[in-house]
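User: Hi! I'm working on a homework problem where we have to compare a predicted structure to a textbook description. Could you give me the structure for the chain below?
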Amino acid sequence: MKRTTTSLSVAVETPDTACATLPRDGDDDDRSFVTALARGLELLRAFGPNDDYLGNAELSRRTGIPRPTVSRLTYTLMRLGYLVYAEPLEKYRLGQGAMVLGHRYLATSGIREVAQPLMQSLAFATGCTVALATPDRHEMVYLEVCQPRGALVMRLTPGSRLPMATSAIGRAWLAGLGPVGRAAAMADLERHYQARWPGVRAKLDRALRDYARRGFCVAHAEWDRTVSGAAAPVVLERGTEVLAINIGGAAARLTPETLEGNLGPRIRQLAETLQGRLWRGHG
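Assistant: Happy to help. Predicted structure tokens:
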């Protein structure tokens, strides 16, 4: 029988709001903070997964950094290989230097080498997409994505972003944090959502209570009405690093009962297995 494939197109949020306010050099609250360095890194983080090229004006709008400062920073980053300048467009794209940093992180942590076979096995067994993510402010960024053989393919790849507060994988990451880290993350989310925060917070609190009871989080047709998923945290290095792993697919197929009775326990087990293997890898 010929296999048919249905693609599920997911709208992925890209960075389009000003970044968090940066302290100035020498501020009393943190005299070791180097604002110039922080601003350069903010420019690199402003590039979303769907951004081929960005100009200084757009980078200024996204980061809140004055345009003259952006011009000096982009020039410096270009000279160092972190950005590439396209003269006909008068815009920049990420360069090889930025890519190398990401690959070095994955290589030195051993995460991809350990996680990918386990994730792919679960994707094949369930016909769902399985992904590993790390946080970036109010979003989660996919590090690895494993697709099933079957009839459903989600168009999400490494680098794709999901909202932290309304996705299962974001809620799982929050659940894996210690009290201090979670309070800081919640404060950042409150600043991001502003007037919408009370409603978002109520759902987050319920998700955290659910996690405490069953060891995983779910989101059914929330951040995207066509997508549902279950997720669990992966806590590493005695809690100094927390990732999250999820399993998901079409909301019409993955009912709340399926998420809670089948996929949730399976992703919790995968997270526990992955966490144990990464701990052994670190001795």
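For your comparison, note the following. The longest strand covers residues 227-236. The CA atoms of residues 28 and 62 lie 27 Å apart. Good luck with the assignment!
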